[in-house]
Write a structure and sequence with these properties.
This protein is mostly beta strands and 235 residues long. It has helices at residues 2-16, 167-177, 227-233; strands at residues 20-28, 31-36, 42-43, 49-54, 60-66, 77-89, 96-102, 120-121, 131-133, 137-138, 152-156, 160-164, 186-189, 199-202, 211-219. It contains three helices and 15 strands.
């Protein structure tokens, strides 16, 4: 009898244990921008495109984007992440590497609107090559403050949809949801060695905004019980 009760108890405990429930949330960028190496007073806060890489005559472009993950509880498990971007223009069909870095300083999206990838006059609150928030707040390092290692990298070629989904991105999102570190989004850094490697992506103001798809697990509520209740149940 004791063995049967004990076995039933173990089965009940297993049944009452907290099981993970898988969920998915899809977010669009809440801000994005492009910074331009040739000037500390150029930006593209509300432009329809973002740029990453090196243009024909050597200046660099770096894209910034951020997503609001505050709707997720701090104790969720981040199972996987997909960063989805639409590449809308490419000067050639040579494969180029686009790396994603976690940004470690806050930055802004102002009202600047660049044309044809050249950037526009920075407006108050814009991120620029020199500024986190134009005109007064500065990056510690010109070109942006990012983590030492890339969270992911992907080779892109022509126009189309591209997905970055390495474990490093999931680690970043976990850090943000658990509040281990602040959420300042990501920076796209392209091939900055070779001229004419720049790639154009749709911004949040464009036709296909950047999307972040997060697959996560959350614990289901546990039914509370006591050994006394279990004994009564099996008398």
């Amino acid at each position: 009898m004791y063995g049967r009760v004990l076995g039933s108890f173990l089965l009940l405990v297993t049944t009452l244990a907290s099981f993970a429930r898988g969920d998915t949330i899809t977010l669009t960028a809440v801000k994005d921008n492009t910074i331009f190496s040739e000037s500390g007073s150029l930006s593209n806060g509300v432009g329809a495109d973002m740029y990453s890489g090196r243009i024909l005559n050597s200046p660099l472009r770096r894209a910034l984007m951020a997503f609001d993950v505050s709707s997720l509880p701090t104790d969720v498990v981040i199972d996987s992440v997909r960063l989805e971007l639409k590449l809308t223009k490419s000067p050639d069909l040579i494969p180029r590497l686009i790396r994603v870095y976690r940004v470690v300083a806050d930055w802004g999206e102002g009202a600047s609107d660049g044309q044809l990838g050249q950037g526009g006059p920075a407006q108050p609150g814009d991120a620029t090559w020199m500024n986190t928030f134009y005109p007064n707040s500065l990056w510690s390092t010109p070109g942006g403050d990012v983590a030492a290692a890339a969270s992911d990298s992907l080779t892109v070629v022509g126009t189309g949809d591209y997905v970055w989904n390495a474990a490093g991105l999931a680690s970043d999102v976990h850090g943000w949801t658990s509040q281990t570190f602040a959420n300042y989004g990501w920076m796209l850094i392209g091939d900055e060695i070779v001229n004419r490697t720049v790639r154009q992506f749709s911004s949040r103001e464009g036709a296909t905004p950047p999307r972040l798809v997060i697959h996560y697990s959350a614990a289901t509520p546990v039914q509370q019980t006591t050994w006394g209740k279990i004994k009564i149940r099996y008398r």
